[in-house]
Amino acid sequence: MDAIAELDSEETIEALKKALAWGGHEVVLIEADANVYNKIRGSKVDIVFNIAEGFRGESRESHVPVICEMLGIPYTGSGPLTLAICLNKARTKEILNNYNIPTAKHQVFKTPEDIIDTTLRFPLIVKLLHEGSSMGLDDKKSIVESEGDLRKRVKYLMSTYEEHVIVEEFLPGREFTIPVLGNEDPVVLPIIEIIFVKGQRINMFMPDDPVIPLIQEVKKGIELEDTSNKSVCPAQVSEELEEKLKQTAISAFKALDVRDWCRMEIRMDSAGVPNVLEVNPIAGIDPTYWLPKSARAAGISYEKLVNMILDYALERYGILEGKNEQISG
Known about the structure:
By secondary structure, the chain is α+β, with helices and mostly antiparallel strands. It folds into 2 domains: about 1-100 and about 170-315, ATP-grasp fold, B domain (D-amino Acid Aminotransferase, Chain A, domain 1, 2-Layer Sandwich), CATH 3.30.470; about 105-170, Dna Ligase, domain 1 (2-Layer Sandwich), CATH 3.30.1490. The protein is about 35% helix and about 15% strand. It has helices at about 1-5, 10-20, 35-40, 65-70, 80-85, 90-100, 145-160, 210-220, 240-255, 290-295, 300-315, and strands at about 105-110, 125-130, 145, 165-170, 175-180, 185-190, 190-195, 230, 260-270, 275-280. The longest helix is centred in the last third of the chain and has 17 residues, at about 240-255. The radius of gyration is 20 Å and the shape is globular. The chain starts with a helix and ends in a 13-residue tail after the last helix.
């Protein structure tokens, strides 16, 4: 189920294709499977619009950018190093800490028996070290209040997914998701606040609707519980908090050398300080997802958003000059 959850539906791909065609571009679809190197090499494309999550290995999101760089083909979005770092939550935090950007205190567990850092304060949240799309997260079981529950959850994740686990102090405040576009002078699109419902405390990803039947088939027809939360965009925040959130997002964007576009998750701690939870350099691009919704709140259509991302990449490569305009969000 978890592997399938990261798939983009045919509807998402078709929407992206139409948006690029709207911008006057000829589009060639390339599946990022085990034969992607030969496909890209033989395609004669001018630039790759990269949304490939990869399907194997802890640095899987880097595969297509590495291939493009080997072949000398321009591509949208962040480079291999940034994508690999951002998929590893601990490495992301190390860089954020180096730049004094607030992020939840954490510890990496390599075995269920690792000695617990005594400076960590419960409640704690237990996550897989280098996964996205809410893999391994459970709203009822991921937040733990005791050492016994912590070790039980760590052991379960390690035995199920065969990878290391990161444990973070659970932040009790409001949660926001913030899209950022650009390069040298990045801009923040309207901020989205996650509104937790049904007593939920963490934001859970729900895959594209067309992908859900595939998941149900793998899970033998079991109905998926709707774990999605509500959201408000633009978020109802004070001018002071809005500025703090924007500056935190831009600081993280620059520190991690993100390019062209991303969406990051930020949550407030008990002192009201915005903390970066995760940075997603390949954000969900389906028209119903948060980044396009935020763009629409800024008066940017889906078609224009997609072509803005492409134009940022073209400008970065020196192929196009100064086409993107300043965004007020």
